[in-house]
Amino acid sequence: MAENFVITIARGFGSGGKEIAHAVAKKLGVKCYEHSILTLASHLSGVDRSLFAEADEKLLKPSFIHTLKETLSPHPEAHFVSNDQLFSYEAQIIKGLAASESCVIVGKAADFVLKDFENVFSFYIEAPRDFCLENVMRKMDVTEDEAHKLISDTDKYRAEFYKYVTGGNYWTNPVNYDMTLNTKKVGKENCVKVIANYVNMMMEGK
Fold it and tell me: What is the pLDDT of residues 48-93, one digit of tens each?
């Protein structure tokens, strides 16, 4: 029986999911991986992190693949020839982390990547639009219209990304997760407690 555990956090933009993920990691004494996965994937692939990050953001745009290939330095392992290979580097990192340590992983369809691993606990964090709007406007110093667009565009991208890499599953499908939490109703601090308590309870039963 594996002793490591992994918590995956999917989140709607502005819901506070990222903050909750980092707080859960701190409470449980483990690392939280989000943007650092890009750095690790960059090391694995030999591709400059800035290019890798740009590719990650434009994963669903096939026209960008050709552009990226044109700009890559001639590294023996740097062969981004398809959308699948772009994602495969991140998937390798995620699986490597799950096999070696307990951690929290934010986004990257990690619940799907780790579907065959033991002790993986997946959560989806969401909140009503008014709650997300307030968070985005405050944290990013944007207007309400700009916040609406940021939320819509980001959530659309995340949904399309998830559908693409999973072969058709949908991002908000409750069956994908152990639990879905509404931060407006539950509160961020209570979300942290619920997730930590759930994981501790499940691990104690192993």
Answer: 555 555 555 444 344 433 443 343 334 433 433 345 667 787 888 8
Q: What sign does the dihedral 103-104-110-114 (CA atoms) show?
A: positive
Contact 32, 106 (CB under 8 A): yes
pTM: 0.81
Q: Which residues pair with 179 in a beta bridge?
A: 123
Containing structural domain, residue 66: 6-128+174-204
- Tell me, what CATH number does 60's domain have? 3.40.50.300
Would you state the structure tokens that stand for residue 90, as one six-digit string? 């991140």
**Whole-number percent of the chain with pLDDT over 70:** 73
* One-letter amino acid for residue 93 of the chain: I
Q: Give the amino acid at 21.
A: A
Cα 164 from Cα 44, distance rounded (Å) = 23
